[in-house]
Amino acid sequence: MHLVRQNGKHGQRNGQRNGQRNGQKSGQESGRGNGQEGGQGAGRGNGRRRHRFRVRATGALLLVAALGSGCAAEGGSGGAAHPAGGAQGRPAAGGPAQARGPAGALSAYVQKVRAARAARVAAARKWGLKLTPLPAPAPPRTKPEITFRKGFEVGDDSLPPVFTTVPTKERIVFLTIDDGSEKDPELLKMMTELDIPYSAFLSDYVTSDDYGYFERMQGRGVVLNNHTLNHRYLPGLSYDEQEKEICGQQEIMEKRFGKRPRLFRPPYGNYNGDTLRAARSCGVEAVPLWSAEAFPDHMEWREWDRDLHPGDIVLTHFRGKADWKGTMPDMIRQVMNVITAKGYAVAKLEDYV
Ligand SMILES: [Zn+2]
């Protein structure tokens, strides 16, 4: 017997309903998938919240954090100015800057921070954001140790952990976009100009008509992750069927995008022990779910306090006007206004997981 690990009855009921609906045309399926994925956390608003995630607060991490805060205090852009990583935001430990001495290095650094800040302000204005997104701190040199969220275990701690929040004390959240039916070129442009990192979780049945779009996304620094071949309700499948859904997608993504994903998200957030065993068998290291979901006109909160917390993972979808009330840029405007107003920056998930 395989229990559905998500929210007990809620998850199972929702998931089954979805599973039955699978196979319908992609737009509809996608739309429903969202509702169900949104339903994923509904059973969790029971007061149990922060869990015992361990953070390795090493000296290096604290130093990096201090540098990151320094950038923020400057009112400028820090390490996150470049999606590829925060190292660029810090003074180099050698090279021309050092040749000018500490004062020269600092001056060059301040100039760089100011330029990044100005670019960010201009991009925010251009794309109609109410507030300029906050710069993320430089990523940790050592990734935090991530374990299963309490209540999400399947009885084997050695399996890839399922979690909704990354253990960190930084005021950062992570943006993740699922499925892949809507391929809006404006999204690529907007995110690059705003310099906001995000991660994609792709399902082949909606991406196979245009892998090129996601190649371009990858070329802009976005990591592409696994969301199965056909977006099935996995706990309703045998181990072999689940393996085909998960590992088949690993193969396709490696072939199309040159990299085998390390991260996997089960459709609707539903999984069982077989899901995690199958995922591990083909290289999956972690299973990030989400703690809030973004739409063009509102947020759906999964935590009892209906708020963001350090390290929270935010879910949204590749959708267009046919699926929800707006475009991808509309959705980004909405979620970024919320994230920034609450004092959070968006960091890159793969820097931490
Ligand atoms: Zn999905």
Largest sheet composition: 7 strands, mixed
Heterogens:
zinc ion
Which homologous superfamily in CATH is the superfamily of the largest domain? Glycoside hydrolase/deacetylase
Number of DSSP-assigned strands: 9
Q: At CATH's second level, what is the architecture of the largest domain?
A: Alpha-Beta Barrel
Query: Which segments are poorly predicted (pLDDT under 50) over 5 or more consecutive residues?
Result: 1-97
Measured by DSSP, the beta-strand proportion falls in: 5-15%
Q: What is the C-alpha radius of gyration, as a whole number of Å?
A: 20 Å
CATH level-3 fold name of the largest domain: TIM Barrel
- What is the H/E string? HHHHHEEHEHHEHHEEEEHEH
Condensed summary:
By secondary structure, this protein is α/β, with parallel strands linked by helices. The chain is built from twelve helices and nine strands. It has helices at residues 8-21, 26-39, 59-73, 96-99, 101-126, 185-194, 204-207, 211-219, 239-257, 273-281, 328-341, 349-352; strands at 162-163, 172-179, 199-202, 223-226, 287-288, 292-294, 299-301, 313-317, 345-347.
